[in-house]
Amino acid sequence: MSKQILPELKIRNKKINVPVIQGGMGIGLSNFNLAGSVAREGGLGVLSSAALDRIVSARKGHKVNSREAARLDVLDAREISNGHGAIGMNIMVALVNSYEDSVLGAMDGGVDAIISGAGLPFSLSEIAKKHPRFEEVALIPIVSSGRAAEVILKKWEKTNRMPDAFVVEGPLAGGHIGWRDEETAMAPENRLENLIKEVIDVCFAWNLDIPIIAAGGIYSHEDILHYLSLGCSGVQMGTRFLATHESGANDEYKKMLVDCKESDIELASKPGSPCGMLFRVLKASPFYQEALAHARVPKCDKGYLLNKGKCPAKENNETSFCICNGLLASVALAPTEKNLYTVGQCAVKIKKIDTVRSLMLELQGA
């Protein structure tokens, strides 16, 4: 029996042939090669702005700032895509020191969409408004509740620019998720299906006809069809693209990803991420094991991920750990640190490392 053909996804002025957004995974996991490869196969390939100044400086062999790094990364991904698909950039609200420069730099480079979460992106539309490409670029908040969507709409209404889509991220996503304790995150009312309904209802109440993108725990062609049947226009998937040859994950990371079981995945909280949100990790990550033992001396010498202007991991190692250094170590940019590996809950289903082309065909039901 032939599988159902997936519809195209239209966000603002951009048509995306395959309604699949590759999640923006930092640090360095959603690199220009991965994002460009996904775009080349007809999807929306997404870069991550996290620590991009260090990543691009190392790649280019000379120092660049956050704005220039974002511009160059988009251009490099575009070259890989060979003019196909679309390129986006994920810019975390928690990256306060580089947030505005990353938005403007991505727009300088010709990005098609900016996706923003890990906090509510209240300032995104105002910042984007400063750029001459303001009308061209899709602005897409990530939310984990109808209430969050409502608050963003009220804020953005003042800028005369509404979101071009919402990514609705459930509790099975990798990395940071939008809850502060595991009991609340995994409560039945926070199942992704319920969150999607909430956000769709909010958009209906606002008379706003925009795409809703499901994210968190999505694995297969059948999963995509399920969320399309609930009123979504597409899906965002991170972990499946992490398990590709093109991703920035190192060989040890990919082996642990393929071998992991349910018990190997943990929502880190105490100690947890400096920004206060739950953070899903592979429990055996060397950096996380060190954090659990409180063995790493409190230190934050990178300053990317901040909570109210500071990194709690700089002052104590009881409640939080410095994820910037662990993630940079995973892409060989913090040689004195141990590696930290993040995954989504669907990692338990992954049995092999694939090419982006093969994965995109599988997701389309080919």
Strand line-up across the major sheet: 3-11-10-8-7-6-5-4
Radius of gyration based on Cα positions: 19 Å
Tell the overall outline.
globular
Estimate the helix proportion, in percent: 25-40%
User: Could you say what the CATH architecture of the largest domain is?
Assistant: Alpha-Beta Barrel
Unreliable stretches covering 5 or more consecutive residues = none
Number of domains: 2
CATH topology of the largest domain: the name is TIM Barrel
Distance from first to last alpha carbon: 11 Å
- CATH-defined superfamily of the largest domain: Aldolase class I
Number of strands: 13
Largest sheet: 8 strands, parallel
Tally of separate helices: 14
Broad structural category: alpha/beta
The helix-strand sequence is EEEHEHHEHEHEHEEHHEHEHHEEHHH
Question: What is the averaged pLDDT score?
Answer: 93
The top-level CATH class of the largest domain is Alpha Beta
Residues in β-strands, percent: 5-15%
Short note summarizing the structure:
The chain has 366 residues and is an alpha/beta fold.
Explain this structure.
By secondary structure, this protein is of the alpha/beta class. The chain has two domains: 16-249 and 354-363, Alpha-Beta Barrel (TIM Barrel); 251-345, no CATH class. 34% of the residues lie in helices and 14% in strands. It is built from 14 helices and 13 strands. The strands form three sheets. The protein has an eight-stranded parallel beta sheet. The model has no long low-confidence stretch (mean pLDDT 93).
